[in-house]
Amino acid sequence: MAQQTFSDLEYSNRKRKTNREKFLDIMEEIIPWDEWVEFVAPYYPSGKRGRPTKGIEKMLRMYLLQIWFNLSDEGVEDAIYDSYAFRKFMGINFNEEQVPDATTLLKFRHLIEKNHLGEQMFRAINYVLEQNGAMMKGGTIVDATILNAPSSTKNQEKSRDPEMHQTKKGNEWRFGMKCHIGVDAGTGYVHAVTATPANVHDITETHNLLRESDEVVYGDSGYIGIEKREEIRNDPNFSKIEFRVTRRPKSLPKVSDNAIDWERQIDHRKSSVRCKVEHAFHIIKNRFGFTKVRYRGISKNLNKLNMLFACANLLMYAEAKQRSVPSVG
After folding, report:
1. Burial class (CB in 10 A: 0-12, 13-18, 19+), 14
2. Is residue 206 included in any domain, yes or no?
3. Is the Cβ–Cβ distance between 90 and 21 less than 8 Å?
4. DSSP H helix total and E strand total for the chain
5. Domain range holding 279?
6. Among positive and negative, which fits the CA dihedral 291, 295, 298, 300?
7. Are 93 and 143 part of one and the same domain?
8. Which residues face 42 on adjacent strands?
9. H helix intervals, 46-170
10. What is the pLDDT of residues 206-254, one digit of tens each?
């Protein structure tokens, strides 16, 4: 057990914990630190040359703080100095060591991105969920959301990100990328993540979000006609899937006031299942604050999305376990 500092003793007398500290306590307990450190270890500098390296777990904790709170490299360094909750999560005692600087974090982040470690960690978490019976099979919900990118050309290259594109949603033009996910229909855990420019239609990425075991797939009206796509019809597994896609309200037939509107009731049932996908997006956008891309290029942002959805699955799993524990009193 780490030795307590005067700050620890002072903060232990608080009346309540902040929501930030409660969140960090949950993630501290649920994240498989040893396994994630093993993913990074083969690519991490040995420290035999140059300056001594920081510990992998310490850098991983700093990187996770960055993506959970949507901070820049310099911003997360400053936040650790400022926040007791961040310093406690990092396990840093200023009497013994200082916070890794922004450049060190930058190099660590590039190491994660270059070797696609976010995808490996995402798959590892899902494998554990499947083995524990927490993630079911047989049904998937597909959906996509647009993440805005800076459209300004006031940068060193004097240009917008060439991998991002603009698209019109409703009456609004948006520039950025699109995140596509496949969610387990039974539990709401995310099992597949892809990313494309914003102008790519949702339906074109569907085959990359399905599992061979899927028998039913739910989607909104953007996926109408998915069963006619070649990549679906020509696949021996996907061609057997029943696609339950909600129709556009204007396409539903009108009924008299005394008749039961079966068509709308059926679509309402589909929507009641499909809405589980929105909770995953809620965690990414509202709790982790990832509504606008920070990095240039699809690959870097996809790596971040993989890490975020891996953490979102862990968070949903931890909160589900807390709800299942009966309250005392």
Report:
1. exposed
2. yes
3. no
4. 12, 6
5. 136-324
6. negative
7. no
8. none
9. 56-68, 73-82, 84-90, 102-114, 117-131
10. 999 999 999 999 999 899 999 999 999 999 999 999 999 988 877 777 7
